[in-house]
Write a structure and sequence with these properties.
InterPro entries: Pectin_lyas_fold, Pectin_lyase_fold/virulence, Pectinesterase_Asp_AS, Pectinesterase_cat. With 325 residues, this protein is α/β, with parallel strands linked by helices. The protein has five helices and 26 strands. It has one domain: Pectate Lyase C-like (3 Solenoid). The two termini are 19 Å apart. Bound molecules: 2-acetamido-2-deoxy-beta-D-glucopyranose (NAG) (2 copies).
Length: 325
């Protein structure tokens, strides 16, 4: 039985559930001990030259390629206008505060090399950083592409217009993050849990933006996006839908989430292909706010029961009990 992540999950914890919780706590304590035993190297990046490196990429390039010791890269406040590619596992990037530590680039999405930041290796962690693509509203422009397994983001901001966050492949966890864009701004075929995040749509009135475009392409893929305890806002009433299927088996769930009136009553659309209605899985569970009402939703979306929502609303959705601390 998955353990509730939040106090707000109103299911009374029965004794077998408590036993499971105790077990999980002991397992995670064990994991923390291993983690502490693992050496980690801390380096600083400072554009003024007072750190170990001036550029973030130089710090990544200097990290060991192939072992499981973690390299923690502390980034001093500033706007770092360079692309960053994380091609080694166990890299942590830490800013001072997300608003003061910004990684920015200006390039539309023309190739895999276009995003401001590309995470290609596993076990990546980012804290208190802003990832931005300043290209603007004339074409898709990716701020971060996450293509490594077991990536976690804490207190980060992702800012662009179209296609901001390419959550492409692997298991990912976002906590306390802010994601901004006008359409399809969280997209790709990852398996991700967004925990207490704020999604802000900048879709103009009438443009019909979509918060998500998840890409799951077959029933056998274990991918999908789950949003728990999040907040959805936008520029006006009815500017955006919750999602549309980039792949036919697209899967997205919103649980315990505030939706402002920016969310259209219909909630979802089939992206012009009615056959997607049979294969996509879109649901919501105990959401609130003017945009959350389910009576106007497309008939093929789901108002989930507690049992149906359960697999999506804990860290188990991304196997977090194995790798999140
Ligand atoms: C990394 O490890 C693999 C397998 O252990 C090895 O084949 C490869 O050469 C190593 N690469 C580097 C850069 O050390
Ligand atoms: C981004 O680049 C384009 C040209 O590729 C340019 O027209 C635009 O002004 C740039 N935007 C910013 C914010 O630098």
């Amino acid at each position: 039985m998955p353990m509730p992540l939040y106090g707000v999950v109103n299911s009374p914890c029965r004794s077998h559930c408590r036993a499971a919780a105790t077990l999980l706590v002991s397992v995670s304590l064990l994991c923390s001990c291993f983690a502490i035993a693992m050496p980690s190297v801390v380096v600083t990046v400072d554009q003024s030259g007072k750190g170990d490196h001036r550029r973030i990429q130089d710090a990544i390039d200097a990290a060991p390629a192939n072992d499981s010791s973690r390299t923690v890269i502390r980034i001093k406040p500033g706007v770092y206008r360079r692309k960053v590619v994380v091609d080694k596992p166990y890299v942590t990037l830490t800013g001072t505060s997300a608003t003061s530590t910004v990684i920015a680039w200006n390039e539309s999405w023309v190739s895999d090399e276009s995003p401001t930041v590309s995470v290609l290796a596993s076990d990546f962690v980012a804290k208190r950083l802003t990832f931005q693509n300043t290209f603007g509203d004339s074409a898709p422009a990716v701020a971060v592409r996450v293509a490594g397994d077991r990536a976690a983001f804490y207190g980060c901001r992702f800012v662009s217009f179209q296609d901001t966050l390419l959550d492409e492949t692997g298991r990912h966890y976002y906590r306390g993050c802010y994601v901004q864009g006008a359409t399809d701004f969280i997209f790709g075929n990852g398996r991700a849990l967004f925990d207490k995040c704020h999604l802000h749509s900048t879709s103009p009135d009438g443009a019909g933006g979509a918060f998500t475009a998840q890409q799951r392409s077959s029933e056998s893929e274990e991918t999908g996006y789950s949003f728990v305890g999040c907040k959805l806002t936008g520029l006006g009433a009815g500017t955006s839908i919750l999602g549309r299927p980039w792949g036919p088996y697209s899967r997205v769930v919103f649980a315990l989430t505030y939706m402002s009136s920016t969310v259209r009553p219909q909630g979802w659309d089939d992206w012009g292909d009615p056959s997607n209605q049979r294969t996509a899985f879109y649901g919501q569970y105990q959401c609130y706010g003017d945009g959350s009402k389910t009576d106007g939703r497309v008939a093929w979306s789901h108002d989930l029961t507690q049992a149906e929502a359960a697999p999506f609303i804990t860290k188990a959705w991304v196997d977090g009990q194995q790798w999140l601390r």
